[in-house]
């Protein structure tokens, strides 16, 4: 049985005068410990699908199951990391870090110690009493990742978490996230517009078309790339070949729609 199953998901946004179908008959499954990416033209429903998996939105049709259980409400097994870090500016990094533990009522000395070790893992030791405005953008995103992982989610949803960063910081954070998720055996879903990022970090890539959003192809990243950290994967000869192929596929979708 697959770890996460999205079965025949469709979703329509309704207003008083219009109905816009964002997703149509999406079905896919993801194994435990797998890292997958969603790519596609703007408006293809990638973020909507991520929100449905997180139970932030209930789909018009279809179901999402995690370990065989239907997802109907926000679940502690799911962590969500966004483009903005959304750290509370009036709280210290440590207070932000422990926030999820308090909300989920698992704020124990053991969980706090584990959370602080994550902060150290993110090379943020010594920032515990700092406020977010005292940290760089990359440091804040690392703190946000530590906060997301502090509650020990089984699956991590990443909605363009690196897109607001400069290129060098982005590459460093890709490397850190990839290594951390491998170390903790986490399952991850990444929404991105960056083809290179999808190839460098993923085991599989799901390509979506727009109007309405639908899954058109699934790509298995070659094993020689999957075994490498993101920066090293970008240097491999197979990377450029897959990048060009995906770029043409994506370009044809954007031209068509």
From TrEMBL:
Entry keyword set: ATP-binding, Nucleotide-binding, Transport
Regions annotated as coiled coil: none
MF (Gene Ontology): ATP binding
InterPro entries documented for this protein: AAA+_ATPase (IPR003593), ABC_transporter-like_ATP-bd (IPR003439), ABC_transporter-like_CS (IPR017871), ABC_transporter_ATP-bind (IPR050166), P-loop_NTPase (IPR027417)
ABC transporter domain location: 4-235
PANTHER family named in the record: ABC TRANSPORTER ATP-BINDING PROTEIN (PTHR42788:SF21), TAURINE IMPORT ATP-BINDING PROTEIN-RELATED (PTHR42788)
Entry protein name: ABC transporter ATP-binding protein
Organism of this sequence: Anoxybacteroides rupiense
Source lineage: Bacteria, Bacillati, Bacillota, Bacilli, Bacillales
């Amino acid at each position: 049985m697959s770890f996460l199953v999205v079965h025949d998901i469709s979703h329509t946004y309704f207003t008083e005068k219009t109905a816009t179908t964002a997703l149509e008959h999406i079905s896919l499954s993801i194994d435990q410990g797998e890292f997958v990416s969603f790519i596609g033209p703007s408006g293809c429903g990638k973020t909507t699908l991520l929100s449905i998996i997180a139970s932030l939105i209930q789909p018009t049709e279809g179901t999402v199951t995690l370990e065989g259980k239907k997802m109907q409400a926000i679940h502690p097994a799911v962590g969500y990391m966004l483009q903005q870090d959304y750290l509370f500016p009036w709280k210290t990094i440590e207070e932000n870090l422990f926030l999820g533990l308090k909300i989920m009522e698992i704020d124990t000395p053991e969980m706090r110690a584990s959370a602080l070790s994550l902060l150290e893992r993110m090379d943020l030791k010594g920032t515990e009493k700092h406020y977010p405005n005292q940290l760089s953008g990359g440091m804040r995103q690392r703190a946000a990742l530590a906060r997301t992982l502090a509650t020990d989610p089984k699956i991590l949803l990443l909605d363009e978490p690196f897109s607001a960063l400069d290129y060098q910081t982005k590459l460093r954070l890709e490397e850190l996230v990839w290594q951390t998720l491998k170390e903790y055996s986490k399952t991850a879903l990444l929404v991105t517009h960056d083809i290179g990022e999808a190839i460098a970090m993923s085991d599989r890539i799901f390509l979506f078309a727009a109007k309405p959003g639908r899954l058109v192809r699934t790509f298995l990243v070659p094993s020689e790339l999957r075994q490498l950290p993101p920066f090293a994967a970008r240097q491999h000869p197979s990377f450029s070949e897959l990048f060009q192929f995906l770029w043409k596929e994506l370009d044809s979708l954007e031209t068509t729609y």
